[in-house]
């Protein structure tokens, strides 16, 4: 299929924009209503848009009628409390899909690797329209936390680690990258996440804020990375064994039920 993409993301699949002066903005995210919605890690979300303006976070394709991650409807109960965040989401002038603030509690590097995932924003996206990417605007000050990006989930050589001080602004093709956040803070991390449609408007916005596709990746001890990879492999093996055991138990119960009926 042929989609309209943003040229600024062609090189590496992500850009880091100029930092936003977060200290100049009110802490609107503290006044929002959050719902329990689990992503990667211990999370809650405060929806600013949703499929029909309700206080929920489900994918737009899980509604009736199902549709792609575009044309989000503002959740007025939250959007009214966050005019600055809404203005930041609207600034590029491109189509907005899901838009929400995430609250993430602290985790570990191995847990973040275990939680690496790819988004599915372009499910049902019509051919010939703009490809959906994600903006991540860090609101709280978390300089020792990192947005982790990997093109190959199990290959540390493909990993990029972007530090997350207050005001850090990143745009990522989250269907290209496996991604998660390693949050080391003692307080929750807050971040504005918006689904944006690629195209000329988004390219102009990225150019305005000097989008850098080669932002320096934070260094990490290779031995620590390998130790964490081993931890993840162990967890995944345990999960696979548990799922297999559950499947065997279900089949056995089904066979036993069939025999008793005979």
UniProtKB/TrEMBL annotation:
Q: Which domain of life is it from?
A: Bacteria
Annotated protein name in UniProt? Uncharacterized protein
């Amino acid at each position: 299929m042929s989609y309209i993409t943003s040229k600024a993301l062609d090189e590496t699949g992500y850009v880091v924009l100029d930092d936003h002066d977060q200290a100049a903005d009110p802490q609107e995210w503290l006044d929002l209503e959050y719902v329990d919605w689990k992503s990667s890690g211990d999370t809650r979300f405060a929806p600013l848009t949703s499929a029909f303006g309700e206080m929920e976070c489900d994918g737009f394709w899980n509604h009736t009628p199902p549709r792609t991650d575009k044309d989000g409807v503002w959740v007025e109960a939250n959007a009214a409390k966050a005019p600055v965040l809404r203005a930041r989401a609207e600034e590029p002038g491109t189509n907005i899909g899901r838009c929400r603030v995430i609250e993430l509690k602290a985790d570990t590097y191995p847990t973040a690797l275990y939680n690496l995932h790819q988004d599915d924003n372009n499910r049902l996206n019509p051919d010939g329209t703009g490809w959906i990417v994600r903006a991540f605007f860090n609101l709280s000050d978390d300089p020792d936390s990192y947005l982790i990006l990997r093109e190959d989930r199990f290959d540390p050589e493909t990993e990029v680690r972007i530090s997350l001080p207050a005001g850090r602004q990143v745009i990522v093709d989250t269907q290209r990258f496996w991604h998660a956040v390693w949050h080391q803070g003692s307080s929750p991390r807050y971040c504005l996440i918006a689904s944006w449609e690629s195209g000329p408007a988004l390219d102009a916005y990225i150019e305005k804020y000097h989008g850098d596709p080669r932002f320096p990746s934070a260094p990490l001890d290779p031995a620590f990375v390998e130790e964490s990879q081993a931890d993840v492999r162990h967890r995944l093996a345990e999960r696979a064994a548990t799922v297999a055991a559950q499947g065997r138990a279900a089949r056995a119960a089904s066979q036993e039920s069939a025999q008793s009926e005979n």
